[in-house]
Design brief:
Elements lengths: L7 H4 L5 H8 L5 E5 L6 H9 L3 E7 L2 H13 L2 H4 L2 E5 L5 H7 L5 E7 L4 H5 L25 H7 L2 H12 L4 H11 L5 H11 L2 H4 L7 H12 L5 H9 L2 E11 L2 H14 L23 E3 L8 H6 L7 E7 L5
Parallel strand pairs: 1-2, 1-4, 2-3, 4-5
Antiparallel strand pairs: 5-7, 6-7
Helix pairs in contact: 2-3, 9-10, 9-13, 10-11, 14-15
Length: 324
């Protein structure tokens, strides 16, 4: 709760909220999973629009769960009864739902990446703009932190994760500079080391020079890419016909995984049609999912209001009616 009785979710604008709410406005009554609850802005907007949905929100960050409890207490009784928040990582979603007795979903939302409150809370160590201990753990009960990555990984491993997680073209130079500057204990110290390792001409454009390095280390600390594909497949397997999944990603590594999982899901090869002499090879299985046409990026107006939304990409699919 903030001063004046406002909730954080009331001053934070969720990315592409109008598009997300519209996507789920026509799904069947039932349960919608918000796999990355954050400040619960998407979840509460969906609750208000769709009276037939119960939203189960999960998040690995206890700060988000504590805020969700405040949000739930601020709702009317009818909406509060349709909102459940659970502390869990999204690769545990199927287990969480199973414990709640839920086997089918009407929809699922993944809003990937770091949340604004995580960036804005200085001592979390996510931001290169404020000084704080190197942390970057979304779940602070976990042991691996940014400090361990920066001070204990060898140069080759750091360079590889910078390339894999952030497409950093100066990965080897940055990795060598990090190793040479150890021990590095704070975010501002790391940002200064990275900035000095990047050529001056490059530093003058393209945003903060340390942005990609912080992104890559955060992804490593939280195993964000490692758990994504399996999590998406597990959740999609629970979505019933005419149900939908929507995913907001914020960098190319995430988006590649989402795109590949959704492409694979379009044809379910485990349910072949009856073979005929006239069957075309590309039509040997019914469509399991179809792409939903949506705006792929936030509007210009939204990006101007919320610059952090500018890198967002939205992909969505709908489960098809499968023949018996």
């Amino acid at each position: 709760m903030l001063a004046g009785g406002l909730l954080m979710s009331e001053i934070h604008e969720p990315v592409m909220i109008a598009e997300i709410v519209e996507l789920f406005a026509i799904v069947p009554n039932g349960v919608l999973l918000d796999a990355t609850l954050g400040m619960a802005g998407h979840a509460t907007a969906i609750l208000r629009r769709h009276a037939g949905l119960h939203v189960v929100g999960i998040d690995r960050d206890m700060m988000a769960i504590e805020h969700a409890i405040e949000v739930k207490n601020s709702l009317g009784d009818a909406d509060a009864r349709r909102f459940t928040a659970v502390h869990a990582r999204f690769d545990r979603a199927a287990d969480v739902l199973g414990r709640l007795g839920i086997t089918r979903l009407s929809g699922a939302l993944f809003d990937l990446g770091v949340s604004s409150p995580q960036l804005d809370t200085a001592d979390r160590g996510f931001s290169y703009r404020t000084d704080a201990p190197l942390d970057m753990r979304m779940d602070r009960s976990e042991t691996l932190s940014a400090w361990h990555v920066v001070n204990e990984y060898d140069a080759d491993t750091i360079a590889e994760l910078l390339q894999r997680n952030a497409d950093e073209r100066f990965a080897k130079r940055i990795a060598a500079a990090i190793v040479a500057a150890r021990p590095i204990s704070s975010t501002m110290q790391l940002a200064a080391v990275v900035t000095a390792a990047i050529p001056a001409a490059t530093r003058r454009s393209g945003g903060h020079p340390a942005k990609r390095t912080f992104q890559a280390i955060r992804i490593e600390v939280n195993a964000e890419l490692d758990i994504l594909s399996t999590s998406l497949r597990d959740v999609m397997a629970m979505i019933e016909p005419r149900g939908r999944i929507a995913v907001l990603s914020y960098h190319s590594g995430e988006d590649r995984i989402v795109k590949n999982v959704m492409r694979e899901a379009e044809v379910d090869s485990s349910r072949p049609n009856i073979a005929t002499p006239f069957a075309h090879p590309s039509r040997t299985a019914p469509r399991a999912w179809r792409k939903v046409r949506v705006a792929k990026h936030p509007s210009t107006a939204e990006q101007q209001r919320n610059p952090r939304a500018s890198s967002a990409r939205l992909r969505a699919m709908e489960r098809c009616e499968m023949p018996l």
